[in-house]
Amino acid sequence: MNKIIVVDFGGQYTQLIARRVREAHVYCEIVPFDAAMDRLTSEDVRGYILAGGPNSVNDPGVPMCDPALLDLGKPVLGICYGAQLMAKLLGGIVDKPETGEYGGVDVVYDERCALFAGLNPNSTVWMSHNDAIVKMPQGFVSAAHTPHCPIAAMAREDQQLYALQFHPEVQHTKLGFDILKKFLYDICHCAEEWIIGDLAGGMIASLKAEIGDRRVLSALSGGVDSAVASVLVHKAIGDNLTCIFVDHGMLRKNEAERVLQVYRDEFGMNLIFVDAKERFLSKLKGVTDPEEKRKIIGTEFIRVFEEEAAKIGSPEILVQGTIYPDVIESGVGHANTIKSHHNVGGLPENMAFTKIVEPLRGLFKDEVRALGVALGIPASQVWRQPFPGPGLAVRILGEITPYKLKIVQDSDAILREEIAAAGLERDIWQYFTVLPNVRSVGVMGDGRTYDELVAIRAVTSSDAMTVDFARIPYEILAKISSRIIAEVDHVNRVVYDVTSKPPGTIEWE
Ligand SMILES: Nc1ncnc2c1ncn2[C@@H]1O[C@H](COP(=O)(O)OP(=O)(O)OP(=O)(O)O)[C@@H](O)[C@H]1O
Ligand SMILES: O=c1[nH]c(=O)c2[nH+]cn([C@@H]3O[C@H](COP(=O)(O)O)[C@@H](O)[C@H]3O)c2[nH]1
Ligand SMILES: NC(=O)CC[C@H](N)C(=O)O
Ligand SMILES: [Mg+2]
Q1: Which of 347, 434, 499, 506 has most ligand 2 atoms within 8 Å of its beta carbon, as the pocket-test mutant?
Q2: Residues 468, 229, 343, 391: is their CA dihedral positive or negative?
Q3: This prediction's pTM
Q4: Which CATH number is correct for 3-187, 3.40.50.720, 3.10.150.10, 3.40.50.880, 3.20.80.10?
Q5: What's the pLDDT score for residue 332?
Q6: 53 CB under 6 A from ligand 3?
Q7: Which residues are noted in the entry as ATP-binding (predicted)?
């Protein structure tokens, strides 16, 4: 299959570029800027995109790619930092102009350039740069300009080298997706062959070959990723798959019953259910630090998997629902650890399993969902909101106690009922309640109360990397608030979280 390589320089939008390429039905991979050339130059590579980044190409020690990449005779598209790097590596000059550009800007495209051919030449683009290309390398021409940026795009078409100062991957660049598609189809001559529904058969066949007749244990949470991973493996190896679902006591209200009903009763999967409530809660007793909670839960999950595996003849393979963003965040780039996700950073070193199989580790969430639909998993499962492995533990600030768990479970159930009743389930990426460990004074039934505060968190997103708070209509919020206070014991106040990500994160811990 054709592929595009997206070179990561630590920018905010690298993943977004990759998603856009995939949305155009072209396969792509993100590689770090310092990857060895032989990882980048296989025959199926049709072109390269050099992504953005926070550094200035003129500073010492900043991320650079191998200049040989520009000399392979394959098309290269530089975006922002990637554009500036292309200019610099080929002998142009990058400098700090008097004004940078941030946000939406008017642009004029030169239609003679293959990237803009046939597009409306007067449009708007989204900019975010302090530096700019002030002198182009030899043989390049300017192909777009804005009021403050005479070289908003440059090209050397005889060598298929293109550079954009603006970001075609963000929605605010009006014709951005068209420009990317021109690069992919007209310049790199990629075929539209990355079609998720068509991949299921090949994935099942290669799982069959990879696993053979060995036995496998799959950690099934009832979430989208592990459900799709488990169904794929089930189709590949049938009864050699055993699934394991752990109730760690921090699941949503009625979640355990629902998972068992869908996957054991309706799907007929071989599913072990472990009631480990006491075990997890006693390990977490007195623990208040968020990272410590996450690590305890991550380790305890694996220990439970191992103990149960030993009871069924010790399958050596563990299946996990890890997806591409988990892999990128833990491997590529040079990002800070914000929180340890239990299935990636949180895995203990010594494990009884000799092999981990992660059939979805190359896919984005929207692709996992499309695959789930193609595999016949019901829409009610495929479109569920993500639920973190550590569960309500990261939604109860401070120590976890049965009293607090009940408040979060009951208030969350009301929120979910009302969001469903309002028909907003598909519009909101995640929605849940949080117990921040705060009490306040209120008046109920003419008497004073001094009780718990519940926060509602609801966000819109397409990949959980950046989010905005959901604009739930006030009337619906009012109904949720009054139901929570009336129906959940010990709650006398409800607040709405209006923080985006960044600077917040989705979960509170
Ligand atoms: N309660 C659980 N029992 C067994 N395995 C679990 C449980 N919770 C999480 N896991 C494992 O951890 C992995 C990562 O969890 P994560 O929440 O990212 O994915 P998911 O639950 O499958 O999907 P979603 O993101 O939609 O919630 C899961 O794919 C699953 O393998
Ligand atoms: O399986 C998981 N194990 C974890 O440890 C974990 N922590 C956060 N999340 C989910 O990841 C997404 C991003 O969350 P944050 O904005 O809170 O970092 C959101 O979808 C969160 O619900 C987790 N999922
Ligand atoms: N978004 C980017 O890639 C920015 C590139 C570079 N850091 C600049 O400020 O110009
Ligand atoms: Mg989950």
Answers
A1: 506
A2: positive
A3: 0.82
A4: 3.40.50.880
A5: 46
A6: yes
A7: 221-227
